[in-house]
Amino acid sequence: MNASLLAPAFTIDEYYELRLYQMIPTRMPEFHDLMGVQVPTIFARNGISKPLGFWESHAGPLAPLYAYVLLWTNLDERMQAWKRFYADPEWIEKIGANYAGQQRVERSSIFILRPSPIWAQFKDETASGPIEGVHELRFHDVLNQDPNKAHDALAQTDLPFLIARGANVLGVFATWFGTRVNQAVTILAWPDAATMQQAYREHQSDDAIIATREAERRAHGRPLLRGTDVHIMRPISYGVPQANLAPRP
Amino acid sequence: MYEFRFYSVAHGRMASELALVYDMAIAGAPDVPGGPPVHTESLWERYGVPKPIGSWTALSGRRTPAFLYIIKWDSLTQRDERFPRFWTDPFWRARRAELTDGMPLVDSIENWLLDPSPAWATAREDGASQPVGGVHEMRIQHILNGSQTHAADVLGSVDLPALQALGARLLGVFEVVIGPERPMFVTMLAWPDLETQHRAWSEMDRDPKIIAQRQNERARYGRGLFGTLDQYLLEPMRWNTPFANFGVSR
Fold first, then answer.
1. Other CB atoms closer than 10 Å to residue B87's CB: what's the count?
2. Is the minimum CB–CB distance between B209 and chain A shorter than 8 Å?
3. Domain containing B171: what range?
4. Which residues of B touch A9 (CB under 8 A)?
């Protein structure tokens, strides 16, 4: 009998860090000067690459919410870079001056995300440039027994339905470290709020989608996707994300 | 880096969840799915996944029934080479399919990354080399944002010594690096029994040093350093009972 019947090795080198800051009411406006103007050079010299996008949200959990996404190839490097950043005297001086003795951030939630296996099929390789409009961050509670089934359901049923009604897929992820692992996370862009609202109105009453969820319930004891947290966000002028969340120029 | 995994287990599925973790992390590994345990190492160990520093079920708290464990990693590169590779192992998949039997074992999973807090270094016990049984207490507590250093100092030099004098043993204190609602500390204590734990916290509320400390905090910050608390009483698993200081040497 072969004593080394272990699975083959592989390497992970793509991580997205999603940072959600629950802001103290009235304290967000001046935070933009810190994050948009002062921080980028301090990030860069400590090994934190330019965030892929910045958003604010006043509609959804944790509002008023400040959000941004970073791309990493290695998590140990990520930990070291943030340690260096927090110890950087210029950061300490700038945040002290910006906060002026009062907190701006109440709490933060940080996720390490991995790209969903289904993301690639929604990337429009011909698209480039900043994507404006109304953005939407969704955390979909998925069946933990086989999270890929829920991602497949998104790919086969929900995302095509939404794209046909005006959605642009900025990214699809799975939570890797953080609260509620295995959730599917989608970041969609819509031309405007009315288009988004109309799309979800139709999504909720669509016979085919209702039948799909019912079949999931029969097969798995629950729908593959449920309990979704939704944040409706606006990209911030100094950090509007690019198509496919590509690195910003 | 410490990986903290908290499973909210589906009602009626705890026995299967525990069997699954035991078979992967503790029991000798077989060579073929369903085969005899021909290795002295567990399947996790064969993939370089360390044995957890502790595993517990929750006696009280939110999202119960709950099962949790903590793994100490030398690096996250190592972690992400080893754990995901294990998840593709055929025996793991077969045993999991057998135990889940078409119905999910867990409703939700928390997977946080924790750093040791300076409070741990301040209050740690020396020379503790035995497993610590009894009833364990996990305190997941909001900390006044921006004052983490001060909070760790107070926890390590005021609160934890008072608790130790009342019968607590310290397992570890962590700060949440990746996870929700930061800043949060996670403090793990061991008590000989529930009686002692209850009496100790009742006395903490009347301890003049603790009262004075909280008053100082309110005078300085307008509120306490320690905010709302998610508290769990835990039963350590017999097959993975933690050591004092989680067996981590200084």
1. 12
2. no
3. 117-247
4. 81, 85
Verify whether the Cβ–Cβ distance A179 to B112 is below 8 Å. Answer: yes
Cα–Cα distance for residue pair A11/B78, rounded to 1 Å: 10
- Among the listed ranges A217-221, A240-244, B91-95, B137-141, which one has the minimum average pLDDT value? A217-221
Same-domain pairing of B168 and B94? no
List of residues 6+ apart from A59 with CB closer than 8 A: A231, A232
Q: Which helix (H) or strand (E) holds B141?
A: strand B135-143
Q: Please tell me the total count of domains within chain B.
A: 2
Q: How far is CA B183 from CA A28, A51, A110, B115, in A?
A: 19, 22, 11, 12
Contact B50/B42 with Cβ under 8 angstroms?
no
Burial of A182 (0-12, 13-18, 19+ CB in 10 A): buried
Q: What is the pTM of this model?
A: 0.88
Say if residues B231 and B185 touch (Cβ distance below 8 Å): no
Kindly indicate whether the ipTM for this predicted assembly is greater than 0.85, answering yes or no: no
One domain, residues B86 and B201: no
User: Cβ A177–B112 below 8 Å, yes or no?
Assistant: yes
Q: Report the relative pairing of strands A53-59 and A225-235 from DSSP bridges.
A: antiparallel
Look at residues A51, A69, A63, A61 and name the one whose alpha carbon lies nearest to residue A23: A63
DSSP string, A218-237: HHHSS-SEEEEEEEEEEE-G
- CA–CA separation, A69 and A62 (whole Å): 17
Residue whose token pair is 């946080």: B112
| pLDDT one-digit tens code per residue, B86-118 | 999 999 999 999 998 777 889 899 999 999 999
Q: Taking a C-beta distance cutoff of 8 angstroms, is the pair A64, A71 a contact?
A: no
Residues B94 and B181 in one domain: no
Q: Which residues of A touch B32 (CB under 8 A)?
A: 1, 5
User: A107 and chain B: CB distance < 8 Å anywhere?
Assistant: yes
Rounded Cα distance between A23 and B74, Å, is 34
B165-200 pLDDT, tens digit each: 999 999 999 999 999 999 999 999 999 998 899 899
Q: Are residues B136 and B208 in the same domain?
A: yes
